[in-house]
Predict the 3D structure of the following.
Amino acid sequence: MHSQHPATNDGSMVPPTRRTTRPKSQRRSAAVAIAAERGDLGAVKAMLGDAPEQWLAAKRPALDELREQAAQLRRDGNDAQSRKVATQAQRLAHEVEAAEAAQAADFDRVGAASACSAARQPALHCAVAAGHEAITEVLLEAGAPIRARNRAKRTALHLTAIHSTAAPLMARLLREPDAPCNAGDTVGSTPLHYAAGRDDAEQVAALVAAGATVNLKNKQLCTALHSAAAKGAANAARALLAASADIDAVDGSYRSPLHVRGFVPPARSG
């Protein structure tokens, strides 16, 4: 009986290589998210069906050049550099594949805009976290879901409150219908909790104006005012108190914001 496994020169059997290649749809999806994070507006637009043929005309020769460069480096014995260039070529190949798919008559533009990276980070999240305003706009116009969540159950709105680079994009996201102002992440914290903890009074006011519930509690029963108190965020605390935040609300340890790190609330204006 013959073995189905190939033999090496010394006669030992070589186990079959397990295929790890992801389906084309997943590769294309990840390519959109990666390009969004990288800030490559041209690639994102092409993969969303915006003049992909023009982008492809420039990128196909570039892909061939990268592949040849990687092969030459490998022939020269420079394996480390060859792998680096091969990785760049693979990334571009996935983008080319996605742009080619965007030329199809049945291309799903909304589906492409809803893409996620291999780490299940939606393309919109990738663009927002990196502060890429133009790409965020392109994704939203293409139908990227404003209520999409990542692995931590955070929406893009959460990221504008967490990352200073993303903060300027909050106003844009809040213009979307049904912006999830009160969505809780895995610990139940809302964008308002994070904006308060970062002492961003402007974001706090914007979220409240958009419908954020001021005294909503997370899983530790902390309100946004607790978050502000924990960080000594006086500006955010003022904005929350102006929006009728409950200074006597208690968390899971029966602490009010006044108990958190000996927090002293700022004086109310007027």
